[in-house]
Guanine nucleotide-binding protein alpha-4 subunit
Amino acid sequence: MSKLFRRSLEEGDEDPIALALAPPGNETPLERQERLAAEAEARQRSEAIDEEINRQRMEKKKGPKCIRILLLGQSESGKSTTLKNFQLMNSPKAFRHERASWRAVVQLNVVRSVRLILDTITEAQAASNPSSPSSAMLAIPRQRTESIESGSVQIRFNPELLKLKMRLLPLQQVEEALLRKMTPAGSAEFEATHLSPATNLPYSSRAGKFKEIAINSTAQWKGAFGRLMATARASMDSAADIDFEDPKDPGVILHACAEDIIQLWNDPTVKELLKAKKIRLESMAGFFLDSIPRITALRYVPTDDDILRARLKTLGVSEHRFKLKSGQFYTIFGKMHIFSNGLYKEICYIMTGEYSMLAAHVPSEVSRLSVLHYALVLNLSVTEAWVPYFDDIDAIIFLAPISGFDEVLLEDPAVNKLEDSLLLWRRIVINPILKNTQLILFLNKTDLLKAKLDSGIQFGHYVTTYGNKPNDYESTSRYMRKKFSNIFTQNSPKSRLFYVHLTSMTDSKSTEKILMNVKDMVIRDMLQESSLL
Ligand SMILES: Nc1nc2c(ncn2[C@@H]2O[C@H](COP(=O)(O)OP(=O)(O)OP(=O)(O)O)[C@@H](O)[C@H]2O)c(=O)[nH]1
Ligand SMILES: [Mg+2]
């Protein structure tokens, strides 16, 4: 039997840790004094750490430093654009450093607008009767409702337009090059979804033709552009971030096609065709055809406004943090139209109420938020077990694009966009789990609403309850505000203040004021809430 084992047996103490920590048997008085002093110091250090933890805990209780805001709204409502405005306000340097990436998105938006026109021409050509003697003649219904009474318009494609179409074919290469650059080989980060149908084309005839590019919110796509993007520099000279000398720069072909793009966009036959098909390109996301000379210039660098207008669909949920003087400002944004994202499987798991099962199927960084998001979408009866996943959201900014009164949903062409926004708003308002969450409503895209009304589109034609009231911005916006407000007051589980703003997220100046106002209000209400507790 070993000496050590005999000793522990004799002392009746078999705990190896106690044995290892036991003072040596042959300790001198001086060694003992030193040992006790070291132990006292260690104890003090440990107590100080405990105290600091407690202090931080108390501080957190006194007033949370982190504000959590969730951006919600249907696809294309302006969530990403709101986030860009937050970035522009809080971290303008970082925002401007991304110009090289946004340059590519603007180029892609231009190329896609051109392709939409070219595809519409091709479709119209194919629809014309080849056996008819006037094969270049085309019958297009003017409007769903008017086509029966007024018959159809005749559109003739002149040979010059068809030649123009041929000359613009190289743009397809530009599109492919941009997509290749944005989509790392073998990555599934992009998912093509459909371009907004601001038209009355049947969904089936559009499906698969006009695909929209989407970016997964967790993807690092911004690193793919410009030679200096990888090495984040402190310089504000963002033009230096773009590799203009790259012979493969898509800007070169785009520049060469500039004249033809302008000619195509201004062609009276094209205008007539788009009108007949009810394709309002100028109110569609990512519209830049009115700025072609500037955007196709060889040394084009996107302005702040261009970045706000650039359209790239987000998939999934993303999370952003901004540091503010008053602490940390934290925004999160999510999506409402889940079925178009192929996330049906996850939804089934939520139905079973098993958070852990869901978490195993969505990327970890988004899982908790996805639960909140999907549960809200499905209007599930949320049980107590769900509360921890919802209770840390301080405010929800809900975006309703009110210019969509005459448009239908991409996901379901039978549903009007405004109607969809009202239904989603009701779901958020009525949800008992959010009864303490501040709800802020942004009636967005007011600029597009004005433009539509000015162009003669009748609000009352689509919103029949509006009746014969004036077809102007003041009356229509007041009407929609009232509708959203009524839903709020009639469905809120407890009485809350109604915060609403008429916004145009592509106008950074007016938006900055509104966002400052929202930020101050959220902080104020949060402090008030915490002092009441
Ligand atoms: N004219 C105008 N365009 C806007 C406004 N707000 C957003 N947009 C544009 O509308 C398009 C869609 O906006 P996004 O911010 O990408 O929409 P989203 O809500 O993030 O959409 P998803 O990512 O599909 O969920 C972009 O091209 C924006 O520039 C607005 O107030 N006025
Ligand atoms: Mg988005």
Remarks:
- The mean pLDDT is 71.
- The pocket of magnesium ion (ligand 2) is lined by residues 79-80, 314 (CB under 6 Å).
- The two ends are 65 Å apart (CA to CA).
